[in-house]
Amino acid sequence: MTGIQERILSLKHEKNAVILAHFYQTMDIQKIADHVGDSFELACRAQAADESTIILCGVRFMAESAKILNPDKKVLLPAPDAGCPMADMVTAEDIVRLKKQYPDAAVMCYVNSSADVKAECDICCTSSSAVKIARSLSEKRIIFVPDQNLGAYVASQVPDKEFILYQGFCPIHHHVSASDVTAAKTVHPEARVLIHPECRSEVVKLADYVGSTSGIIDYVKNSADREFIIGTEMGVVERLKRIAPEKNVYLLATRLVCPNMKKTRISDVLNSLENDVYEITLPEYAIKGAFKCLDRMVKVQ
Ligand code: 13P
Ligand code: SF4
Fold it and tell me: 3-83+261-282, superfamily in CATH?
């Protein structure tokens, strides 16, 4: 433990704060977090938090979700410019337009979206809950925003519904190709291929397992196999090397690095605790509207 990490741990108690971190955060941050999880787990943990302050080490939509689900708490995002480019690809106006165009459809949004967008949607989902949520809806038609790839994956798993897919994408996962998988399999022919559903369908089709960051980690932990090609951000590989050192894990492509997730440095976490920055504030209407959408997701589980 470094001096800065020790200082964070003692300040955290003093200030009655809980530190939540996504698996894409650097390992020094994962080590001082109270909970490390995928988007769904972080949202649930934030909703259940008793502590007066929640420090969300991740990107803005994750911190906003924490605030929406537990609005009486102070929610801090240590790196205020850590956004998600995919979340920025859709606006509330886009949703209003789509609802007019398809009035009979339910609107399902990926958690990687702004509070304003969520406030216009019927139900939210994460990569771990999307299929279950689509199946739970009574509507035959579903507008899915913003991730075209997660939407296409859900559509393939829920064939009795019609999906209208918004054309957003994650710039990190979307640029992985089927030939990356073929190349990795040539080097590691025995490895299982584990893919995040934000990847394109040509990549998803080559997977032995498709799931969220948590799903991928659990798959490696519980599998009798020893070698795995990981088709998601490098933070998952780093975590697996730490928690399952007996397994061999290989990152599918070296460019699987999310620059926004890497904006949070350990010094930002300390700054956040020392100076109560950067607080997430949202207008009342956005909190109320988005709460329905997020809370409905949590209750479907
Ligand atoms: P998970 O919910 O699977 O952790 O995904 C979050 C994310 O942003 C993936 O790019
Ligand atoms: Fe957004 Fe992609 Fe980064 Fe996830 S990996 S936070 S979807 S840009």
Answer: NadA-like (3.40.50.10800)
32, 9 contact by CB (below 8 A): yes
CATH number for the region 86-170+290-300 comes to 3.40.50.10800
Q: For a ligand 1 pocket test, name from 127, 149, 256 the mutation site with the most ligand atoms within 8 angstroms of its C-beta.
A: 127
Sequence ranges of the domains in the chain: 3-83+261-282, 86-170+290-300, 176-251
Per-residue pLDDT reduced to its tens digit, 46-95? 999 999 999 999 999 999 999 999 999 999 999 999 999 999 999 999 99
As a whole number of angstroms, the distance between CA 11 and CA 4 comes to: 10
Pocket of ligand 2 (CB under 6 A): 59, 84-86, 112, 170-173, 198, 233, 258, 260-261
Q: Is the pLDDT of residue 301 over 70?
A: no
Beta strands at 17-22 and 209-210: parallel, antiparallel or unpaired: unpaired
